């Protein structure tokens, strides 16, 4: 069953969706929490997150997917968004799921796409006992480097309060915050199973970043699954199908 839900955080409302399998009426069920990427939403392109949630529900796994503050339908403005704020919101979402009486709290999985993968990796590293498995789709562990490249390519004046990124105003605080976050060091304390999925045609986050995660953080506990030719958000039906099926095999 798919239902709209809300979460209050720092006086503002995050809006999301929960997918709860029918088996939750008679027993507690595992749950996946999905974190969207930079400028993304709880749906993500070609409804990827919805399709993942529906597939998980078919296999008895609940899922929760929220718009971060300033994104999608949640409160706030995008120009107030920072990675540290999204990490704090992600922790609040994990707390919500842990306190849900329908959920088997020994089986909570985190899944993040792009910058959502950065967020998921840090949250798992900060509360490893609460995360059974971790799934990172094209994770932007090198987000600071990517933003700096964009600033140089587009000749953006970073001394101004905001700059325009495709209609989204990005605040200077976002960059200042991002440079303080050592993603790989904060992700390293997580020692559970990790699945990294990345397209070899990704021109946003180079696919070698998934190998960096494995080398610097996870070692043999990580499986890296490359999808030949796939772009950053797996924008082809066969790529999308491979993503969903690979996730299913990892969690079921």
Automatic annotation (TrEMBL):
<protein>
    <recommendedName>
        <fullName>Serine aminopeptidase S33 domain-containing protein</fullName>
    </recommendedName>
</protein>
<dbReference type="InterPro" id="IPR022742">
    <property type="entry name" value="Hydrolase_4"/>
</dbReference>
<dbReference type="GO" id="GO:0052689">
    <property type="term" value="F:carboxylic ester hydrolase activity"/>
</dbReference>
<dbReference type="Pfam" id="PF12146">
    <property type="entry name" value="Hydrolase_4"/>
</dbReference>
<dbReference type="InterPro" id="IPR053145">
    <property type="entry name" value="AB_hydrolase_Est10"/>
</dbReference>
<dbReference type="InterPro" id="IPR029058">
    <property type="entry name" value="AB_hydrolase_fold"/>
</dbReference>
<feature type="domain" description="Serine aminopeptidase S33">
    <location>
        <begin position="33"/>
        <end position="144"/>
    </location>
</feature>
């Amino acid at each position: 069953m798919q239902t709209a839900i809300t979460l209050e955080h720092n006086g503002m409302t995050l809006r999301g969706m929960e997918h709860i399998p029918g088996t939750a009426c008679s027993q507690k069920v595992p749950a996946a929490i999905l974190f969207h990427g930079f400028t993304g939403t709880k749906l993500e392109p070609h409804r990827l997150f919805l399709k993942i949630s529906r597939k998980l529900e078919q296999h008895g796994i609940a899922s929760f997917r929220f718009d971060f503050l300033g994104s999608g339908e949640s409160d706030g403005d995008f120009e107030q968004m920072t990675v540290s704020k999204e990490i704090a919101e992600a922790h609040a979402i994990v707390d919500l799921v842990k306190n849900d009486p329908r959920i088997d709290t020994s089986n909570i999985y985190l899944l993040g796409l792009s910058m959502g993968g950065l967020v998921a990796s840090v949250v798992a590293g900060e509360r490893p006992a609460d995360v059974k498995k971790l799934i990172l789709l094209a994770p932007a562990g090198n987000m600071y480097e990517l933003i700096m490249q964009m600033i140089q390519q587009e000749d953006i004046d970073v001394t101004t309060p905001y700059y325009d990124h495709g209609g989204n105003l990005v605040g200077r605080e976002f960059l200042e915050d991002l440079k303080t976050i050592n993603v790989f060091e904060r992700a390293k304390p997580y020692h559970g199973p990790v699945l990294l999925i990345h397209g070899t045609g990704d021109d946003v986050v180079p696919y070698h970043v998934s190998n960096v995660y494995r080398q610097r953080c996870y070692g043999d506990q990580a499986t890296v699954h490359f999808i030949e030719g796939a772009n950053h958000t797996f924008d082809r039906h066969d790529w999308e199908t491979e993503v969903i099926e690979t996730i299913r095999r990892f969690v079921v």
